[in-house]
Give the backbone structure.
Amino acid sequence: MHDGSVLRFTRLPDDYDVADRQKAFAYLKQHPNEVVTGVLFADESVPELHETNQTPGTALVNVPYERLCPGALQLQQLQEEFR
């Protein structure tokens, strides 16, 4: 760094268990002066973000233009719903 300080980045080991919350805290305590990189904890019981937000299964890049941009009339009708 510009002031002479040093940041030490540490990658999580390949055999690290991301499902154990207590081990995540213990790992951070064991490496107090390091910036640990990687996924420290993942709670598999929490619903996936796409499931929670009800996003479509099709990527936007694969949706036809006509469906993404239905035209001025459709936009006007949509805006009328919010007036």
